[in-house]
Amino acid sequence: MTGTGPAAPAAGLLRGLPPLPRLLIGTQFAFNIGFFAVLPFLTAHLGGTLALAGWLVGLVLGLRTFSQQGLFVVGGTLTDRFGPRPVVLAGCALRVAGFTWLGFAQDTWAVIGSVLLVGFAAALFSPAVETETVRQAVLHEAATGVARTRVLALFNAAGQAGALLGPPLGAALLPIGFRAACLAGAGVFVVVFLGHLRLMPCTPAKSPADTLASAPGGARAVLRNRRFLALCAAYGGYLIVYNQLYLALPQEVERATGGQAALGWLFTLSSVLVIAGQLPVSRWAARRLSPRTAMLLGLLLMAAGSLAAAALLPVRAFGGLGPSLVFVVLLSVGQMLVVPAARAWVPDLTDGHLGLGVGALSSSAGLLVLVGSAPLGALFGRGGVLPWLALAAVPAAAALCLPGRSGPMRPGFSKVGASTAGNPR
Asked: Which residue ranges run through the membrane (predicted)?
């Protein structure tokens, strides 16, 4: 990669950004507070309060991920066409409706419908925010020499800070009931909606639709790009493993301790690791690793985490939480390497169709999660070593799917820069 930039601390890096990327990073922080006030407790609610079978819990979680990640391409395409503001506002409004419905849902069909709405809401606002963040990171790289992966790492760390604050909020409300956590999450998104209605620019300096119209081939060109599709497959493997924080991890904690009390602490550990480590890891990776090597190392660490969890199942270390701890630690470090590298690689593989590329990356990954969640849910419902071995095979296979060696990032990527070149600094 090029342009590693100065080794500024997080606060200095944030202060050095223009207003729009600072707003986008704050947006990710707020999104995750509302989201993680609900999601970590969804598995226990479905399997406990509503008494759904393990395979059905896995299917519901897979549907949520697919309706979110699988439909990112819709949000990304709409962002290319209309700019991020209206897409973000629509997504926030739907998330409020979805969380409220989920809080009152009792029947299986209502749970599935509310979960699909919650996921589709994110399919609108998340790609809009991510697309504009990638675009701004490329522009900032061209203007200052600070590697785009460092800006994207700050975006990821802000999301993890929100993920750190969300579960305690949900846990504090759980004695009142799962409905209270859902309504609190909805309340956060009401605040986000109102804030963006006031603060987010109505349009980029130059509409992304202009870039989309001028770049040849559209979706056909992006989706026929074998290197981009290989990146999508590898990212899908990462997302399948990451999704096990909400499926395998709660079941393993229940098996080891007989309850869910430790789950909040494990989510806290994951968030603290990413908040503390994301920027140093990304700074090191920007100097020493290509995007491909960073993703390869991250995926192999995730595979090692699953294998280590399998090996530690008979061990009673840390109150039986040894498998969960090693899985969370290695998954978190792998995430720090994979996510910024994958997002930073997208502009160089999509030739100007940035929103479409960001959306397609997550959509294809979401489809793979949907395919893999129900079988993994059934395996983990049975317990034992086999589910962890199967899980370890996923990132190992994803590593084999990575595109061939990549050259340096192009800091002046013209078709991305053209869309917002007039943004104030």
From this structure: 23-42, 48-66, 110-130, 151-170, 176-197, 228-249, 261-281, 293-313, 325-346, 358-379, 385-402
CA distance 385 to 360: 34
Q: The pTM is what? A: 0.74
CATH numbers and ranges of domains, the chain: 10-404 (1.20.1250.20)
Whether 110 has a pLDDT exceeding 60, the answer reads: yes
